[in-house]
Description:
The complex is a heterodimer of chains A (620) and B (300).
Chain A: H1 8-28, H2 32-50, E1 54-59, E2 62-67, H3 70-92, H4 98-116, H5 120-138, H6 147-175, H7 180-185, H8 192-209, H9 218-225, H10 228-253, E3 264-265, E4 268-269, H11 270-290, H12 296-317, H13 320-351, H14 367-381, H15 387-402, H16 405-430, H17 446-464, H18 466-479, E5 492-494, E6 499-501, H19 502-522, E7 525-528, H20 556-561, H21 563-567, H22 570-592, H23 597-619
Antiparallel strand pairs in A: 1-2, 3-4, 5-6
Helix pairs in contact in A: 1-2, 1-4, 2-3, 2-4, 3-4, 3-10, 3-13, 3-17, 4-5, 5-6, 6-8, 6-9, 8-10, 9-12, 10-12, 10-13, 11-12, 11-16, 12-13, 12-15, 12-16, 13-14, 13-15, 13-17, 13-18, 14-16, 14-17, 15-17, 17-18
Chain B: H1 2-36, H2 46-55, E1 59-62, H3 65-83, H4 99-120, H5 123-154, H6 159-165, H7 179-192, H8 204-207, H9 218-242, H10 248-268, H11 274-299
Helix pairs in contact in B: 1-9, 1-10, 2-9, 3-4, 3-9, 4-5, 5-7, 5-11, 7-9, 7-11, 9-10
Amino acid sequence: xxxxxxxxxxxxxxxxxxxxxxxxxxxxxxxxxxxxxxxxxxxxxxxxxxxxxxxxxxxxxxxxxxxxxxxxxxxxxxxxxxxxxxxxxxxxxxxxxxxxxxxxxxxxxxxxxxxxxxxxxxxxxxxxxxxxxxxxxxxxxxxxxxxxxxxxxxxxxxxxxxxxxxxxxxxxxxxxxxxxxxxxxxxxxxxxxxxxxxxxxxxxxxxxxxxxxxxxxxxxxxxxxxxxxxxxxxxxxxxxxxxxxxxxxxxxxxxxxxxxxxxxxxxxxxxxxxxxxxxxxxxxxxxxxxxxxxxxxxxxxxxxxxxxxxxxxxxxxxxxxxxxxxxxxxxxxxxxxxxxxxxxxxxxxxxxxxxxxxxxxxxxxxxxxxxxxxxxxxxxxxxxxxxxxxxxxxxxxxxxxxxxxxxxxxxxxxxxxxxxxxxxxxxxxxxxxxxxxxxxxxxxxxxxxxxxxxxxxxxxxxxxxxxxxxxxxxxxxxxxxxxxxxxxxxxxxxxxxxxxxxxxxxxxxxxxxxxxxxxxxxxxxxxxxxxxxxxxxxxxxxxxxxxxxxxxxxxxxxxxxxxxxxxxxxxxxxxxxxxxxxxxxxxxxxxxxxxxxxxxxxxxxxxxxxxxxxxxxxxx
Amino acid sequence: xxxxxxxxxxxxxxxxxxxxxxxxxxxxxxxxxxxxxxxxxxxxxxxxxxxxxxxxxxxxxxxxxxxxxxxxxxxxxxxxxxxxxxxxxxxxxxxxxxxxxxxxxxxxxxxxxxxxxxxxxxxxxxxxxxxxxxxxxxxxxxxxxxxxxxxxxxxxxxxxxxxxxxxxxxxxxxxxxxxxxxxxxxxxxxxxxxxxxxxxxxxxxxxxxxxxxxxxxxxxxxxxxxxxxxxxxxxxxxxxxxxxxxxxxxxxxxxxxxxxxxxxxxxxxxxxxxxxxxxxxxxxxxxxxxxxxxxxxxxx
Lengths: 620, 300
């Protein structure tokens, strides 16, 4: 029995007003803001369970429709889960302003409402609210240095939003409805050209948020410039709103339309085929760029772009394996990437930098953070026993089964490149020699440990029991009448190509570790190295002056070989485009807006003449 | 019950067999290389003696917990990979996994070793790891494309099904219809095994045997065992995919033949620069394997 029953509008109103309370109280009594925002998130998660499965609200003659189904629950719990875990971490940063905490709450609620909304208008409003609050959060602790990244994010969000808006406008004008269900019922009446145009716009618009190449240029900057504690949520969950949008545009609306599926390549629509290529190139290109980064957050940001490419790739394949893999990887990425970003935040909090060559040796000072950086890395690299393998394995099988030979190869190469950038990250931060100035660094506070452990549990659980995750995803796909994967038990997943048993691998590896440990123990005692300089360096006498941290230009030799590929940059293209716009605008201004009053009068006369002439012609 | 007992017996016995065979492979490698170089060389069982010696050393220097865990994780990672590759038609646990599972299990070992080397904080070790990873980015692409062509050809990623499809004598081996893929995979294998011209990660003359530089005593012993198992598993991929598997005896004969070819190339080749090696993999072997893959896709 529920204690309270809220309508959707009340739910929304409650938390928007709570954020105002956080802002006002936080101004007066600073310590209360983080506790309050944490409690409000818990309350939001609880009240979400009491919401009715459908609801309507009429506002300004518009009838907003909301609903909850299993897909909504999947994304909403992902949002709440990561948001609450991140808010643990936010508590420890005393410097965040009350404005930030208030915005964070609105941001989470807006994201949840994207998943709840069942009509285009409320969807778009929630989408915009999410974008605006994110923008405000990036700049909330200082305009000046964050401005460039924030502006880029804002411009690209706006471009994405325009695409989405035009796409929605086409759907509304062609069917005459703005709720999902009637649109779906009338989807057959839309002319094929218009539908394909609309879906293309929607996928491009949502693709901006999902950092699809070549629309990704905002992501590395915005991810690395946003407040460190918030980046985990930003990169882990907010990008998934884009993935959700692509899913809705693609599968909820377009896939059921016969004409849309007429042109098929490799068993997917021509649309899907383009997405497969875009996804594979995104995954591969971004991974190569990530190996080349010197700043931790930038490296992880590019890695995010790369991992989102996997999801786009798998969506494009659009059969039961592809969609299962995409949704599984959406969750996997949310988990391990928020973990790695939170660890990065802990390191930045303790050392004040994410410049990789300046860090090093922190394993001695922050052992717990290191352990979980390895856990996150295992999932990122897709090592069996973690959720990362479950999702990646299904994506590979989908690619091979569908016969996408080139793109699957690219995806594999991207995954190998993930080892490269992950090792660069974990080595430069935690391994190697400890710098003199980090001798006094302490382990991250206990709030961080809680969030590490909370994320690690599902990472291993869904790795050892992949079937538990697939059961949820199959239910989602069944609800939407999409092909779902049925060949799994709690621990085993089978595809037409092969099988894998998560628990067996886990147990086997446990036993193998035991054997290794026994061999290690019978091998006699060890002696701790006398000092950090107790090393073999080809007969050189190692002193403290030696720079032992190999972190600068880690993959210089690789960079040299890949110079040609890395030179291709979407950023440069957009800058070129900007140049052209600037030039033509400048020319325009010089030619016509010369600041001469007489010239303006002259233009006015011409325009008036044309107008009068036009009206006269029409009247005739 | 009896069948399960036999299976468990094999699971325990096989790693021991593979370790001994792997160490003998290494010993044979030293002998063969020596003969090519017109030297006499150590006895074939030398590496077994080496490992026993390393394990009985009194004290090994360690640089921290991860430094100790690294070799353990490397050795255990390979033990578990061993379970997922059929050896001599014996599927230990591999009926529950496929090629992709194996490829990813094979990564645990280098990852563990890389983390251990990292805590050693010797720049030579880390340079070795950076080179090894770069090399891996090079050969993994070739390896995967070649494996993909086999998967497309049989329509399965399961080792057992692939071996089954090649049963019935030498004429049925995939080596013949998928010759280009097999050739490319053999080239990639040279890098996987770390034999010249692709021994940049070790490069004794440049970076003092790279990753191994800080490890001594039982750590080096564990890494030797890791290397021994790795050779058998890595050549085993080639045997299972292109040479039809076979009974235990023939399996090891084929696996050693693959290793032997790599050794002969190793004995006469100098070393590439790491950049050249990477570039090489992404040009000729990649082109050959892609050609093979396209042929399979067309013929299928």
